[in-house]
Amino acid sequence: MKNTITQFSMLIFLLVATSGFAQKDFYVGLKAGGNLSGFTTNDFLSTDVFGLQVGAIGVKNFNRNFAAQVEVVFNQKGGIFEIPFSDSNPEIKLNYISVPILGKTYLSNNITFELGPEIGFLVSKSTTSVGGFAGLDQIKSLDLGASAGFSFQFYSGLVIQTRYTYGLSKLVDGSDYRNSYINLSVGHFFKK
C-alpha cells in the first residue's frame, strides 16, 4: 500500500510538472472530493458509506464542442451489507486507483456533460465486521464501471464536478455485487 501511494504521488507530480509544457488545448489539474458509495445487489440491502477521492485530471480539447478527459484518482468505495436475520452488518471498505476516460460535450462555455468508462485497480480492502467478511478475499482486483456527470468550470481554473458511476463488473464471481457511487469534487486546472 505504501509503495502504491508513493507511485501515485509521483504520477500526480509528473502530471502537474509537465503542465507548463502543455499546449493551449491541453491542460492538467488536481481534484479532491467525496464519494457516497454502496453496492448494487439483489441479495441484500446495502447502505451507502462516505469515501474520499483525490487525484489528477488531464483534458484535451478537440474543438469548441468536444474534449476528452482522463483522470488518475485514489478512490474510496464500499458499503454496509444489511443481512436479514443477522446482527452482523459488515462494512466493506475498498480503495482503488481509478482511471475514468471521459468524452466531454460542452453545453456552454463553462458547463460540460461527461460520459465514459472507468477502470479501477484495487489497492486495499478491509471490513469492520468482528468476524470478518467471508467474501472479502474473493473481491476482484479489477473493477469496470460506466460514468456520467456534469462539470462547471470557472475562468479562474476552478472546476466543480458531479458524477455517477455504475459498476459493470461483478465484485465477486457467482454474485451480482457491483460498486455504485455518486461523487462531488472540486478541482483546479493549471492553464498556460
Automatic annotation (TrEMBL):
The entry's keywords: Signal
Coiled coil regions in record: none
Record-annotated Outer membrane protein beta-barrel domain positions: 21-171
Family annotation (Pfam families): OMP_b-brl_2
SUPFAM superfamilies from the UniProt entry: OMPA-like (SSF56925)
Keyword match Signal: yes
UniProt keyword Signal, yes or no: yes
Name of the protein described by the UniProt record: Outer membrane protein beta-barrel domain-containing protein
Signal peptide as annotated in the record: 1-24
